[in-house]
Amino acid sequence: MGLKVTPKAAANRVTGLAADAEGGQVLKVSVTAPADKGKANAAVVKLLAKEWGIAKSDLEILQGAASRTKTLLIRGDGAALMRRLTGWCQTKGLKTQ
Questions:
Q1: How confident is the model over 44-97, as pLDDT tens digits?
Q2: Could you report the per-residue pLDDT of 15-44, keeping only the tens digit for each?
Q3: 3-state class of 5 per DSSP?
Q4: Which residue in 84, 57, 59, 55 sits closest to 29, CA to CA?
Q5: Angle at 71 between CA 15 and CA 43, to 5 degrees
Q6: CATH fold of 2-92, please?
């Protein structure tokens, strides 16, 4: 899953979806932590784990640790995760492609 992260924001929250360079979508996430020594990355993992009801250890930033654009690995049963994330998007009013 692609992410676009804004560090040092006013609040920790998922702010919506945005188009990426390849025509897909990324999840926009804001965290209050600064982009310093992995603090923002840790805040992103903590926020998404709580939002999605999964363990922090099941989330890993694969690419973009030092960038605002990140690729996130979500471990677990793919079908179950897809149902959970689709339901979560619907409750948040996020329309996926």
A1: 999 999 999 999 999 999 999 999 999 999 999 999 999 999 999 999 998 766
A2: 999 988 888 899 999 999 999 999 999 999
A3: strand
A4: 59
A5: 55
A6: Conserved Hypothetical Protein Mth637; Chain: A; (3.30.1200)
